[in-house]
Design goal:
This protein is of the alpha/beta class. It has two domains: 134 residues, Response regulator (Rossmann fold, 3-Layer(aba) Sandwich); 132 residues, Response regulator (Rossmann fold, 3-Layer(aba) Sandwich). It is built from eleven helices and twelve strands. The strands form two sheets. Strands 2-1-3-4-5-11 form a six-stranded parallel beta sheet, sandwiched between helices. β3, α4 and β4 form a beta-alpha-beta unit. The longest helix is centred in the first third of the chain and has 31 residues. GO terms for molecular function: carbohydrate binding.
């Protein structure tokens, strides 16, 4: 019996030793290869034809590789699908990620879902488009109000104060469209430009922008200037002007950049476009999210800036990098 008791004691000691060794091995492995934080990125749209979101995703994935984050992309097919984005955000919360990065499709309607993120204890990083209220840990975006004023200042170089102006926006109710339109109207009205049409909305679709702008120009041939507030709206408005042969009569100021916009600038259909830095937005959003997860202090707002591109400056080395961003062109912050 004594011999048997010794063997039992030795066996228990060996089992304890093995457990201790295994625990130490796991701890050492985790310290050498820590688990990557899971960040869910929810853009307004995953439509691959909209270059703005494609470039932002490049920035997201570049930063994820650099800062050691696991990125899961969840998004609606179109920017106008606000209810779809709300459902996706609810699904993201249920996943219990380490952080969520959101480009809100609607400034007001996304507030309840964004509040759920905060109440669940998940850090919320807003990118490109915010929601009402102080819900996010950080907001990374263009100063859209100032960018709207910038586009209006460009239009004033081509249109007289008494001439009629149209605004082609995209999604009614999204924070970026509200800020840009307000910037455009404030700048024009402050300079005595009061003959401004009611804004038309393209729903972020090139074809709808084309049809609505063409119809508007046929019904109101006195229009002499158009400000279009995002990439699809700009491309559609440009195609309408080109189709009607009005490029010498109607001046167009656009937003964002794409190959289609560059071609329209080259053909003198677009006089200028105000471009953002979507690569930087995506990169800085991930960098900020990782910092928040680590408990580090981050900036409440990061303005990624905007720049004017015309036919006369788009071929400079600096602007080529902005028009065609690459992974090695990383933001300074």
């Amino acid at each position: 019996m004594r011999q048997r008791g010794k063997w039992i004691l030795v066996s228990l000691l060996l089992v304890g030793l093995l457990i201790a060794v295994w625990g130490g091995y796991k701890a050492m492995t985790q310290s050498l290869h820590p688990k990557k934080p899971l960040i869910i990125y929810i853009p307004k749209s995953i439509d691959p034809s909209i270059e703005f979101w494609v470039v932002m995703q490049q920035g997201v994935m570049t930063a994820a590789k650099e800062f050691g984050a696991d990125i899961r992309i969840m998004g609606a097919e179109t920017e106008v699908d606000v209810e779809g984005q709300i459902r996706i955000l609810d699904e993201a919360i249920a996943t219990k990620p380490d952080a969520i990065m959101l480009a809100a499709s609607d400034y007001i309607k996304l507030v309840p879902a964004a509040t759920k993120v905060v109440n669940a204890g998940i850090p919320l990083i807003m990118v490109d488009s915010d929601v009402q209220g102080d819900l996010s840990r950080s907001f990374i975006a263009t100063d859209n109000y100032e960018a709207g004023r910038k586009s209006a200042r460009l239009l004033k170089e081509h249109v007289n104060p008494d001439e009629k102006i149209a605004i082609v926006s995209y999604i009614q109710g999204t924070g970026t469209s509200l800020d840009r339109e307000k910037g455009v109207r404030d700048e024009l009205e402050a300079s005595g430009f009061t003959n401004i049409n009611h804004t038309i909305f393209s729903d972020g679709q090139v074809q709808k922008s084309y049809e609505m702008t063409r119809d508007l120009l046929l019904k109101q041939p006195e229009i002499r200037g158009i400000v279009a507030l995002n990439e699809p709206s700009t491309v559609g408005a440009g195609k309408a002007i080109l189709n009607l042969g009005l490029q010498s009569k109607v001046s167009l100021i656009g937003f964002d950049n794409s190959n289609s916009e560059i071609r329209l600038i080259d053909r003198d259909v677009i006089q200028a476009t105000v471009i953002q830095r979507p690569f930087n937005m995506g990169y800085l959003a991930v960098k900020t999210a990782v910092s928040v997860i680590k408990g580090q202090k981050v900036d409440k707002v990061l303005d990624t800036g905007s720049k004017v591109i015309t036919k006369y400056n788009m071929y400079t080395n600096e602007n080529q990098k902005l028009l065609f961003p690459f992974e090695d062109e990383l933001p300074e912050k």
